[in-house]
Request: fold
Amino acid sequence: MNWSWMLPPSFSTVSGDIDGIYYVILWITGITFFITEGLLFYFIFKYRHKEGRKAAYDHGSTKMEIAWTMIPLVIVLWIGVVSKGVWDTVKVDVPPAGLEVIVSGKQFEWNVTYPGPDGALGTSDDFETLNELHAPEDEAVVITLRSEDVLHSFFLPEMRIKQDAVPGQDITVWFEAVQPGDYTIGCAELCGIGHTTMGGKLIVYTAADFQAWSSSQAQQQQP
Amino acid sequence: MIEKYGELRNTALLLSILVIAGCGGGGDAGGGGAGGASDAAPAESPVDVATAGNIAGMVTFSGAAPMMAEINMGSEESCAARYSTPPMEDSFVSDGNGGLANVFVYVKEGLESLSFPTPTTAVVLDQDGCMYSPHVLGVQVGQDITLRNSDGLLHNINASPTENRPFNVSQPVNMETNRSFGAAEVMIPLRCDVHGWMTSYVGVVDHPYFAVSGADGSVSLDGLPPGEYVIEAWHEQLGTTSTNVTVATGETAQISFEFTEAMVGSPVPMGEPIDLLHPDGHRVVDH
Amino acid sequence: MTTQAMTAGRAPMPGMKVYNLKLGMWIFLLSEVMFFTGLIGSYVILRFAHPDHFAEPGVVLNVPLTAFNTFLLICSSVTMVKAYAAIEQDDQQGLKNWLLATIVIGAGFVGVQVYEYIALAAEGFVPMADAYHAVGRHMPHDGPVVGGQLYGSTFYTMTGFHGAHVSIGVLCLCFTYWRAAKGAYSADNLGGVEIMGLYWHFVDLVWIILFTIVYLI
Amino acid sequence: MSTIEQEMVHAAEGGHHDHHELPFIRKYIFSTDHKMIAKQFMFVSLFFLVIGGLLATMMRWQLGYPGEPMPGGMILPDAMMAPTPDGAIMLPEFYNSLVTMHGTIMIFFAIMPLLVGLFGNLLIPLQIGAEDMAFPRLNMISFWLAVPAGILMLASFWVEGGAAGAGWTSYAPLSASGEWTGVYLGQQLWLASLTILGFSSLVGAVNYITTVINMRAPGMTWFRMPLATWALFITAILILLAIPVLAGALIMLLFDQTLGTGFFRPEVGGEPLLWQHLFWFFGHPEVYILILPAMGIASEVLSNRARKPIFGYHSMVLAIIGIGFLGWIVWGHHMFMSGMNPLLGTSFMISTMAIAVPSAIKTFNWLATIWKGDIHLDSPMLYALAFVSMFIIGGLSGIFMASTPVDIYIHDTYFIVAHIHYVLFGGSLFAIFAGITFWFPKMFGRLMNETLNKVHFGITIVLYNLVFWPMHNLGLQGMMRRIYDFTQYEYLAPLQPMNRFISISVFLLVAAQAVYAINFFWSIFRGEKAGNNPWNSNTLEWTVPSPPPHGNFPEMPVVYRGPYEYSAPESEEDFLPQTKPPSKKPPVQDPIPQPVTPTPEGF
Reply:
């Protein structure tokens, strides 16, 4: 059983920052957790009922209250500011695409459309893969995320990427893998009876291997 | 404001009644629908075998057959492993010399005055190797269809009829579920959402005179009472074509259906009611 | 006296100088405001997201007729005020007459709305998105479809919910009238009439907003 | 308008209710007495609490033993379980229904009616010194609307296609058509039921607000109201403003299904995200509806059992109000991944960070309240302390998902499940245990059995943490929620042992609740008799007999001071009831009001 509070390894350019913020928050909340719970138990023990002793008659102290209003406020706002930066890099500022693909969710499969040799989507030489996303490493893969029926959520745990696919809406998602290998594609949004089977594979190649794979696919799938 | 809540109490009442109705409905296994043959309720009239005749026919296709791609079962290894050569899409199957398979052929008109008992035997629709077998099947109104899962992995059967009540059930293990349709309807599409390539079509009619063309395109409808009939042939890619035929006592009438390349992609009627009470109650699927 | 009746002779700390019924009605109307805000908000969002689904004013909807209907409803508010003024003067007959007037006009509003629905549905302007085929007023039925599927859905939901509120209001007015006929109200005891008025004016106000947003813009 | 008129007549009779005996049906079934209605709410919602727990155990069976036959599953219909030679295996659509109904029933039919229906009805009139609610008949109607709603919800399990299966949030378009879920009538019943329940809560809210504003006893100024009443007052306002929005959304979705309108159906131009915005615009205030009363209850018990004035009463009140306001501008933090404009995400993150502060204030004030106290560690106090310590965990884990980048990874994973249960179970439910135990004597005139309660507390707090703590870890490993068989994913398969461990703990946890149930019913009849004021409390409800007579206060109470004057030097005991006339000039914050002359302070 894995009781660890560490995150599993991640392999995208942004995942480091995301995990970083996670660990910062883990430290802050962890310390707060031990202090507050510690105090709680200490008080319960220290001030337990004794015959004849009367509790202090004390309505509060504005100073202390201002203190523990401001300190948390400052901390959480700081977290907020730090988070904004990373959030923008992940969701707002999309880098120039090394590979553009369309990922379309459908009960219960992910269809991926690749631009084909001419490098442009929506042309006759596009080709598709089912439940598999093939990508080169060290290149920004810019995905146009769609859904044909209900909400799905495109989840790449190892890339720290998650985005709901909404029917009738084109949503841009991007990631850049830093290491070749096989990774997971999951659906994180309940999408019906087969939700549990809506998994897939993300396969990251070196640039060269990807070229080879891509051209072989393009030939196979030409009529 | 208060008076509005008085009104709400009634709403609540109505809804609880609705529920009780719902529970009642919950009992039967999915049939129901528009009642089918039973509304026309003529006395049950067994066909006199002595005078009965037969129909024998061929369904053929001429021209360039539509391309059928390979099915990529990569997402379901255990199924893919079942095939030495990758399975082909089965929305168009014909033998080399023109015979067209998977065509649903049935008597469309000419039997209105008769009614027939519901068969007690169930028709099996098997999910084997992540394919439906048979791909096209016919049943009588109210006759059970045994949905069988022989793959032992999660399938769901999503039926979207127009006349009948739709259903969408799953089968996570080797198991059987019985369903039936209460109204005549040609055709009802079934699909498995877990395996996008799995589709099947069910023709529901209120008499026993229907058949699905075999690999060589041959069909036969046996034991018909003598008379004039309109016979229709339905194909999921090519649409429908029909012909008139006269069946004489003890004889076998020959018919043939000719589908052509030109018909590829023509509108395919779905959920068409057989009883002439509502003739144009069908939706059309364009390819 | 009323205030006392409300609090049963106790002398509590009144947070506000209004008796419970009135306060309760005000609070309830707040929630009604949120309800219509939700509906109208959705309408506005959908309309901004899909302008193509909504036709120009008057192309499909019969604005003159509804303008007349709006006028009717405003009149009914006036008569409601008159009714309240009457009972303040302990004028039983006046109360009954003005209530009756309000009932008649309110019912008239609902009637006109029903007529409008029937007429619109006949032109293919229906709430069912899949069956929507409005061709605009006095157009041949095979003409081009005006607006889009969301138009019918939103229109009937917005106006329908308001219509339901008016209908309920009319029923309550009938009840108030019945009570008034039995002489249940007096200058000291007019809570029933007053909160009825509050509700009625609210419904009126909502309609003016709806009419502007749904018909005129 | 009959009800109104009756209200007037009824109210006019005011005082002399208690003289004539009511017939059984008016006294126990269609009662207009707020104490009886409170009990009715309690019994019904405790029943639903049990149902919700059983649903959870079934869910956990599937997760702990994926694809293995469920014991006793054979008795369930084929629409729920797949019969196989060696037992019945749960169908995915039934699992989805379980997920949906567990959430719906626990939130709308157990926790919410317990906090608002039970404690709102029981405490508000008693703590402000009113003889009943402002509109007793409306109060009755509120309960009798909730009952059919509950029946509809349960009935939906037995209709064809089964109960709603689109999650308790019923995101469109999954919830908009049976074609996607295999659920047809069930989803519509779900919508209808919640609409009715919404009206029930609405009626209640109108009643609570009117009562608190208009029916306070002489001297009960705003800032002498007990925190429980304050919390319930703000909660009522949240309900009043949030529920109508939900009702609108529910009805639109119902129309989409029954009439074929297009609000949330993208294929005809509808907007799926519109549903999420409407739902969470209601849903986030709802979160505070589910925790504010718990905070109020905990404050009462902590101050009382620590025999010490609540630390910073005013800031506690302001924190409640602050949460009440901020609760309206944070809904978007449920939708960071929904496809909403990411720039909005940032602003919602900031507002969410801000709303963490009032909760922090309350936590620190609770700690400061027991500091230098004279802590009586009896069962209500144990539950209340458990509330604080669990709420701390729930609050802290909230910061992770408030931070948008971290939420990218943990959104829709078990981390969220852990968080919501630390707040709703560890928080609200422990506070409910505390509250029921604390006010049990006021309801039934007898005390609950202390030993049994301590046993129950011990087992529950341990098992509870064994269940929900590991869910954080599951989430961090990337296990998504609402998933029928996580072993389908290679990278999740290793989580099998931990899931089984959690499941076993759940079975024990649910079983352990029997202790409380037994104690509850035993104490109703056999419990030790309690006097007017078993806890030596200051607030008004303890000045009257237990249970209080019809009309509550034989004569009008007059309030001279705040509710938490424990261990005040001026009295020789360690408490000083709000109604005790001051001997000499007492050192209390508020001036002594002339009875009758109103002095509305604060507002």
About this structure: Chain D has one domain: 24-526. Strands of chain D lie at 81-84, 87-90.
